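Backbone geometry:
***
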Amino acid sequence: MNSRALGKNTSEVEVANVSSHGVWLLAHERELFMSYEDFPWFKDVPVGKILNVEESSPGHFYWPDLDVDLTAEIIEHPERFPLKAK
């Protein structure tokens, strides 16, 4: 008998919280915080668009409704990536 899981695991990444300060992303049992100051693309958008997140590859997150692509490294160390889209 084959006990291999079928399909793609879709619960690896989720938005854990949206607050007036920023967004908390839960990825592989690790919580990542994105402040609106460092990640302005998430400010003033409907929560549903923030909740729609995909992990295209390990540690690489994409919000299709916002056309935002981020890696765990960018989220953890935004000071290393000072250029921001307007």
Q: What stands out?
A: The radius of gyration is 14 Å. DSSP finds two helices and six strands in the chain. The chain has one domain: 13-80.
